[in-house]
From TrEMBL:
Region: Disordered, residue numbers: 313-336
Source organism per UniProt: Kribbella qitaiheensis
Source taxon at top rank: Bacteria
GO MF term list: oxidoreductase activity
Name this polypeptide is given: Nitroreductase
Lineage: Bacteria, Bacillati, Actinomycetota, Actinomycetes, Propionibacteriales
Residues forming coiled coils: none
InterPro entries: Nitroreductase-like, Nitroreductase/BluB
PANTHER family from the UniProt entry: NAD(P)H NITROREDUCTASE RV3131-RELATED, NADPH NITROREDUCTASE
């Protein structure tokens, strides 16, 4: 079966399955997978599923849009792997603010090989919360990650030793707040820990507890996780802060695309990445991170990057066919 459209490619059910299941491998805060997709001919709309928001930790909706930007980037990668060129628009329809991005599949004449090359990394990438090996990440590889972020409108800046120390102080305050904020604790418990089949972060994916001081976020901080192992973490973590020039929703979506492009580039070098986002989830602490990156750049995501010292478990996903609607009538879509 194929979808019909005037003037665009006809997508088969297999192609739709590949596109939507690929989009769904994107990272999202607490693995809420806050997306739905609507397909009409050659147009795929990425839709915000508000019921999957995190009102305690993400009141402004910034982090949820970063996840949706990442899912949009995956769609573009998967379309390129099928040979389609793509264009996209953010916030394409003023009457449908829930449609956050719209991806247009074009001809099969000139797909983007650099995007298609990332297809194999989509299902290899996952968030790693364990210790890294004491091995430097070569400058060339850090540059590749930064270039990937830049190509989507983001800026990935690596911290020097002084920056790491300053961030360490901010993280300690954030960790303490995380432990005592009842609303966030309750919200994290809804999504994190235990066994999870389709969404959320299962206990297995949380990684070991650090022995001694470590730069890592413990998502289960504040509630018990029985049987958890311990490990020594690296003492000189490589930390990058992903920024955008502004702080509007369209830039949050761009941040998600930049994040995902950089993560897939990292995966292609067998690097592992975890998030230190507690420092940008509290407004007053985000301002302190802002001082680290300077004016004219808004911190969106903080990453710890390295070669993983052990294997780790991934997170589950909803079945793709539960996230997609096909054949909705759509009037004259246009890229902006
Ligand atoms: C905007 C954003 C913020 C995130 N913040 C954190 C975080 O602070 N700590 C953490 O351990 N994981 C964080 N994650 C990672 C998610 O938990 C992870 O993407 C999700 O559980 C899906 O798992 P996967 O990345 O292994 O596919 C974040 C992801 C996104 C997109």
């Amino acid at each position: 079966m194929t979808t019909k459209s005037a003037g665009g490619p006809l997508l088969s059910q297999d192609e739709i399955g590949l596109l939507i299941s690929s989009a769904g491998t994107a990272p999202s805060m607490h693995n809420t997978q806050p997306w739905r997709f609507e397909i009409n001919g050659p147009v795929v709309d990425v839709i915000l599923d508000e019921a999957r928001g995190l009102p305690a930790a993400d009141r402004s909706g910034r982090l949820i849009l970063i996840g949706l930007g990442a899912a949009t980037f995956n769609l573009r990668v998967a379309a390129a792997s099928l040979g389609y060129e793509t264009t996209f628009a953010t916030e394409p329809d003023p009457d449908r603010p829930d449609i956050v991005t719209r991806v247009f599949l074009g001809s099969r004449r000139s797909p983007t090989p650099s995007l298609a090359a990332l297809y194999g990394e989509l299902r290899r990438r996952h968030t790693y919360r364990g210790p890294m090996m004491d091995l430097d990440v070569p400058l060339r590889v850090r540059d590749r990650m930064a270039a990937a972020a830049r190509s989507e409108g983001g800026d990935l800046r690596w911290l020097d030793a002084a920056g790491r120390r300053q961030l360490g102080g901010i993280l300690r305050v954030a960790d303490d707040l995380d432990l005592h904020d009842e609303d966030r604790l309750t919200e994290r418990q809804q999504w994190v820990g235990g066994e999870r089949d389709v969404e959320g972060v299962p206990a297995d994916a949380l990684g070991p507890l650090p022995i001694g001081p470590a730069t890592v976020r413990d998502l289960s901080a504040g509630f018990e996780r029985p049987g958890r192992g311990v490990a020594a973490f690296e003492q000189q973590p490589l930390i990058g802060i992903l920024t955008t020039p502004g702080d509007r929703p369209s830039e949050w979506l761009r941040a998600g695309m930049a994040l995902q492009h950089a993560l897939l580039a990292a995966t292609s070098y067998d690097l592992a990445v975890s998030f230190l986002n507690q420092a940008v989830e509290y407004i007053h602490l985000r301002s302190r991170v802002q001082e680290l990156v300077g004016q004219g750049a808004r911190p969106q995501v903080i990453l710890r990057v390295g070669y993983p010292a052990r294997a780790s478990a991934g997170t589950p996903r909803r079945s793709w066919d539960r996230t997609v609607i096909q054949g909705r009538p759509l009037e004259a879509p246009r890229a902006r």
